Amino acid sequence: MKTVYFDHAATTPLDERVLEAMMPYLKENYGNPNSAHHLGQKTKVVIEDAREKVASLIGAEPSEIVFTSGGTESDNAVIKGALAVSGNKKEVITSEIEHHAVLHTVEMEKMRGIKPVFAKPDATGKITADAVREAINENTALVSLMHVNNEIGTINPLSEIAEVCREFDVPFHSDTVQSLGKLPVDVRELGIDFLSGSAHKIYGPKGTGIMYVKNGARWVPWMIGGSQERRRRGGTLNVPGIVGFTKALELAIEEMDNHTARFTKLRSLLLEQLREKLSVKVTVNGPQDNGVPHILNLSFSDADNKHIDGEMLLLNLDIEGICVSNGSACTSGAVEPSHVLAGIGMEPNLANSSIRVSLGKQNTEEDITYLVDKLDAVLDRMFTIA
Ligand code: PMP
Question: What separation in Å is there between the alpha carbon of 99 and the centre of ligand 1?
């Protein structure tokens, strides 16, 4: 059976060029960069080169880059580390449609007296600077808002939000896991104090990422151990992972315009074919045309406004070799709608009927046609039974 992969917002395959760059550090150059001998010193140079490269790619200083195990760790470390030194400021502004790495971290901080304040997204999932202005006050310790939403592809206006944060002297963290390498990300231009990034969303290896901590930011390290990363993140450095992350980011930025143009074309083709071929109604959830072009969240309903189960749809497509995802969570046997779709005010039945199609650089026009044809057949069957 052929596999057609449309789940690139979940993860991407490793780019051959990234693997090639990593190979020497998986084999002969295995030294610990913290070791004083020549093998250690060899990898130390490689790490510092990588740090310089990553810094220049996001407009930061090398001293502001901390290598981590990925987006989840970076989100945890930034939020916990900033809130630990916030003094008597106890409120953190975030949104209900953040990734769980942010949401659950903020939730946990309640145990230490922190109060989450949720800025309200509009119907497309966007958090405006005005929404932040409404929530911010002299007790705000941190604002944490993502750049691109992983389920619906909404792009938040980070530089406008940063202006409000600056006005109130509140540090601003952005989870840029879904935007790094897909949109221009320059920390100075965006005006952010902290950022989280991950390699496996950009054809790099899993389990590796970065945190940007602006020089002078009020923050203490969270992962404590050895003296690595100037004591800001203990743990032996993942040399092949760091090399892989750096190569993946370099390639993603170099090829960004090309990929964006291709995704825009494939997205239009997908929508066009869905509207032409499908007998049921297709709803695009989230932004209609001003989100990132590679993430498309879709729901389906028939003339009687009946919905199908998105989880079943996903499984039926999987039988045809097609990989998509949905954000529903199975909690004690009952399917809960995605917190993102619920957060933008979608009715639970429609939210539960949704799937996310996320495009990647290997996807072709034939893949799109294959998806639409299989969707048509599967939906026909499902709506007949429903
Ligand atoms: N934030 C966002 C927006 C994400 O999409 C993801 C991955 N799904 C993460 C954080 C977590 O990143 P990682 O898998 O590298 O821990």
Answer: 7
